[in-house]
Write a structure and sequence with these properties.
Porin; 12-stranded antiparallel β-barrel; two-stranded parallel ribbon; 1 helix; 14 strands
Amino acid sequence: MEKIVTLPPNTDFDKLMKRFILLILCCLCLCIDKGYAQYIDGTTGLLHMPTADMQRDKTLMLGAGYLRKEATPSKWYYDTWNYYLNVTFFPWLEVSYTCVLFTAKSLGLEPYGYSGYTNQDRHFSARLRLWKEGWWKPWTPQIVLGVNDFTSGSGGDYTNFGVDGDGNGYFNRYYLAATKHLDFLNWGKVGVHAAYVYNKRNVDKLNGIALGADYAVPLPVNRHKLLKLLHEVKVMAEYDSKGINIGGNLSIWEDHFNVMMELYRCKYPSVGINFKVHLK
């Protein structure tokens, strides 16, 4: 669902964004470009492709990120920011609400006294676990059915679930994802992921197979006190049905904080940070 929210002119929003980007850059210096990422859009997954991984039951996740224009739908011809709220209500159901910022210039609002990031696109996403990993046999993968940005809002009709054409629903996709984890003892754990992604849009169209993998780096047991704050370090790579992306995540303080980064098409950097609260 997309709606436009207008901020008053001459806002200090740009100053706040500059401070936020400095915070992210400082965090990235700590992670040394390594790790795993919750999906930059605010849903669980790799970087741009979905996976069948799920958050812990009753997990609340708040996050924000800086997105290069190359990593966003064609509506954004400029670098932008997003922020999101993600809730896992049950171990088999995850719902998220994401906002992606528009500039006043892109919407033709500068003549009216607006500047910088002024409006935002808003959309919902949902993920339903159909099958848990290892339910039948140890080798069986986990399977998740999901959808992003599932209402177009075209002409104000937010009941239109068949997103197509060129209107709203910029992040729309339907997908079926499967994930299997392999534990190599002292060598770390590998996650293998495959998905089919689809939408009917005229631009930013999706209709193909996505493949990816992540690797959890084993951490020394007798590490420095400060390094004991590290919960998990993962590196990852994916083919998102259109191209190859690499990136990662640094998880600290028992997975409460995550610092993420990606190199879209292996050269365009986007970064993000999130905070998790486990209510159960």
